[in-house]
């Protein structure tokens, strides 16, 4: 080493030491947080609390179940896989709880019939018939064999059932091979090779739930016509099956009654049962030999949910005379056993927040259940008890950080109807806030809008409450789970009624001193995003908004939406007539001048329902007018944010957004979100 080089090293070391000394001299130490003398907890502003639940922990363990299909010796079930980007595979579950992977998640099982899909898989023995997301074709997947495609290109299939007598399977088909609108039918497919299949039923706009009787002599199904949605008015049909699988004598049943009929199921002896909302509630009916509806179990509760997806199962036969049913009333779910001969019900379990996919397996009734706690999985009913058979691996969460929902209900001063919701208060065992503070509130609006807020445990809600936020999950007018009349109370009023309910719900909490009226935000996705934009454009209650793929232009939605929802706006807003200003009057995109609250827009670049240009137009307008606004776009997303890494990024961005709007320093901010016109936040 030369003397010159040694001198250079010495100089560099001296410079480094000098820099460190200067930095130490001018460093601003983070003040240590004071502690509450009574509880010993740290005292810090709401929103700034450190949480053990990171955004990665919210979405990384996102494995969930979709469909159960019983077979001899066990069940097949679909499961998303976070390690494969949320793609869907198929597993086999034995009664002992052993699980074997049958279809790798990279295959990605997903149907797009009616766009939202559902029921993408059928099991016959050890052979599976599954729809692949990429090409929407139905494949036969047998052990030790390469997958065999069975259906033509540009057709979609779902909700398939076996027809052993005809050695075929019967499916709902949506045909996109012709130009213009797709056509719907029920078809029978050969099990062994690619084929066109035989069309059994056609002529209606939509079909669902083909079901074969136990003696293989009858086929039942549901159909409906535009502008109806499947939760408006549907038709029940049956036909006789000939030995080769064709149908004879199709006939409509219950045509003297109007309502949403769903979930046809044959009893073991061949009697046909359905769920229908003839009496306002989705209750259980037997179809008599004369084709009439006979009420079997009438309760002020819902035995079904809106059929956004195919393949829902809310009841199952244990025996000819015993049923297991899931019923929901005012947000609470009960699992009941019904003794039909006695007309008596007994409660099996009331601790579940959600029960779905009730099916009869080889050794009992199985279902997918979730609770208000992190526990979720596949359960089996044994006698008068319930046992967990299989659960996905999820990151544990200390119960001390879990905020428990407090149901709220009040009568709206505007509509005179009830408004429902679940309130989650801040919860963190390490922190309390200064006595003079109230927590910021995030009002969450579910999508649909014909869907519902649920009591099921949600890590994304706990992400907020463990940091010192309060959360209100609202069931506004139009939400399901509260009867047909409540579901239809939004009709004609979308963009107004649900916003008024959200405003009154927020005021309900602020009037009680539970939250800070100056720190109330509102967030929603898709239809919920439309409601958020409407709340900010037409009302002044909320101080900030977050929109994921939010609908903003009703005229564009009417022009560009898919077939399944083409008549939906006619119910929600009103029929669009030539030169009518109604849709434009209700569209937030054309009323941005009054939108002054800070806004975060999260958008998928490939969104076919809400094109990115709509969100970009809102962003450009607000930015030009000096409104604090941020725009976050994901190149690899469509409608909504689905991929775990993107969801993590969006949730962290949302935390940064609220911190800047409401003026607190988050304890674990990952990346500070760039907000245009951020200087206006200090005014």
* Number of separate strands: 38
In percent, how helical is the residue content?
10-25%
Low-confidence runs: 1-30
The assigned structural class equals alpha+beta
Measured on Cα atoms, how large is the radius of gyration? 28 Å
Outline the biggest β-sheet.
8 strands, mixed
Query: Beta fraction of the residues?
Result: 25-35%
Strand order of the largest sheet: 30-31-34-33-35-36-37-38
Q: Could you report the average pLDDT, rounded to the nearest whole number?
A: 91
Coarse shape = globular
Individual helix count: 11
Tell me the span between the first and last alpha carbons: 61 Å
Q: In terms of topology, how is this protein built?
A:
Elements: H1 3-26, E1 42-43, H2 55-59, E2 65-71, E3 74-81, E4 87-93, E5 99-103, E6 121-124, E7 127-131, E8 138-141, E9 148-149, E10 155-163, E11 168-175, E12 183-190, E13 198-202, E14 206-212, E15 218-224, E16 235-241, E17 247-253, E18 261-266, E19 272-276, E20 283-287, E21 293-297, E22 315-317, E23 322-329, E24 332-339, E25 344-349, E26 352-361, E27 364-371, E28 376-382, E29 385-390, E30 406-411, E31 418-424, E32 431-432, E33 441-445, H3 459-465, E34 470-475, H4 484-488, H5 497-511, E35 520-525, H6 527-538, E36 544-548, H7 554-560, H8 568-572, H9 582-586, E37 599-604, H10 612-624, E38 629-634, H11 644-662
Parallel strand pairs: 1-32, 33-34, 33-35, 35-36, 36-37, 37-38
Antiparallel strand pairs: 2-3, 3-4, 4-5, 6-7, 7-8, 8-9, 10-11, 11-12, 12-13, 14-15, 15-16, 16-17, 18-19, 19-20, 20-21, 22-23, 23-24, 24-25, 26-27, 27-28, 28-29, 30-31, 31-34
Helix pairs in contact: 5-6
């Amino acid at each position: 080493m030369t003397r010159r080089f040694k001198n250079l090293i010495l100089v560099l070391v001296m410079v480094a030491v000098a820099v460190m000394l200067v930095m130490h001299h001018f460093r601003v130490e983070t003040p240590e947080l004071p502690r509450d003398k009574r509880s010993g907890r740290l005292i810090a502003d709401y929103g700034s609390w450190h949480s053990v639940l990171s955004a990665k922990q919210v979405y990384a363990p996102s494995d969930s179940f979709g469909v159960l299909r019983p077979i001899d010796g066990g069940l097949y079930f679909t499961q998303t896989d976070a390690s494969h980007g949320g793609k869907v595979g198929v597993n086999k579950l034995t009664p002992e709880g052993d699980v074997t992977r049958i279809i790798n998640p990279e295959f990605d099982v997903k149907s797009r019939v009616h766009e939202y899909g559902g029921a993408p898989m059928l099991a016959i023995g050890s052979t599976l018939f599954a729809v692949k997301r990429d090409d929407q074709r139905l494949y036969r997947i047998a052990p030790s064999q390469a997958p065999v495609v069975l259906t033509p290109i540009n057709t979609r299939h779902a909700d398939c059932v076996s027809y052993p007598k005809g050695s075929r399977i019967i499916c709902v088909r949506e045909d996109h091979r012709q130009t213009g609108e797709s056509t719907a039918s029920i078809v029978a497919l050969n099990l062994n090779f690619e084929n066109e299949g035989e069309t059994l039923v056609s002529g209606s706009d939509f079909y669902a739930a083909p079901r074969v009787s136990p003696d293989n002599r009858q086929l039942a199904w549901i159909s409906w016509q535009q502008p109806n949605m499947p939760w408006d008015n549907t038709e029940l049909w049956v036909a006789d099956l000939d030995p080769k699988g064709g149908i004879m004598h199709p006939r409509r049943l219950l045509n003297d009654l109007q309502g949403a009929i769903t979930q046809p199921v044959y009893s073991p002896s061949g009697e046909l049962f359905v769920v229908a909302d003839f009496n306002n509630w989705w209750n259980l009916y037997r179809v008599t030999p004369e084709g009439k509806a006979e009420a079997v179990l009438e309760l002020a509760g819902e035995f079904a949910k809106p059929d956004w997806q195919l393949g829902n199962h809310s009841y199952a036969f244990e025996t000819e005379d015993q049923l297991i049913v899931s019923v929901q009333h005012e947000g609470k779910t009960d699992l009941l056993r019904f003794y039909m001969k006695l007309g008596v019900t007994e409660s099996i379990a009331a601790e579940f927040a959600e029960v779905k996919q009730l099916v009869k397996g080889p050794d009992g009734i199985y279902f997918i259940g979730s609770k208000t706690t992190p526990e979720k999985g596949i359960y089996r009913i044994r006698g008068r008890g319930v046992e967990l058979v299989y659960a996905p691996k999820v990151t544990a969460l200390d119960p001390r950080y879990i905020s428990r929902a407090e149901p709220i209900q009040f009568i709206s001063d505007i509509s005179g109807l009830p408004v429902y919701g679940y309130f989650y208060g801040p919860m963190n065992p390490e922190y309390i806030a200064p006595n003079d503070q109230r927590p910021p509130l995030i009002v969450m609006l579910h999508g649909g809008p014909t869907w519902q807020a649920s009591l099921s445990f949600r890590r994304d809600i706990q992400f907020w409450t463990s940091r010192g936020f309060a959360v209100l999950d609202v069931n506004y007018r139009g939400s399901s789970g509260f009867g047909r009349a409540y579901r239809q109370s939004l009709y004609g009023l979308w963009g107004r009624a649900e916003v008024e309910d959200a405003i009154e719900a927020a005021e309900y909490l602020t009037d009680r001193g539970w939250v800070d009226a100056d720190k109330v935000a509102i967030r929603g996705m898709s239809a919920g995003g439309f409601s958020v934009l409407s709340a900010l454009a037409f009302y002044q209650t909320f101080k900030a908004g977050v929109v994921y793929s939010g609908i903003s232009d009703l005229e564009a939605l009417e022009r560009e939406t898919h077939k399944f929802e083409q008549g939906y706006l006619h119910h929600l807003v009103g029929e669009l007539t030539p030169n009518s200003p109604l849709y434009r009057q209700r569209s937030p995109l054309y009323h941005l001048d009054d939108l002054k609250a800070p806004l975060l827009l999260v958008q998928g670049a490939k969104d076919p329902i809400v094109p990115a240009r709509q969100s970009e137009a809102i962003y450009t307008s607000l930015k030009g007018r000096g409104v604090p606004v941020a725009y976050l776009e994901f190149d690899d997303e469509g409608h909504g944010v689905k991929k775990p890494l993107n969801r993590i990024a969006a949730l962290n961005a949302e935390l940064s957004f609220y911190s800047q709007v409401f003026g607190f320093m988050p304890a674990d901010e990952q990346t500070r979100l760039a907000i245009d016109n951020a200087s206006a936040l200090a005014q």
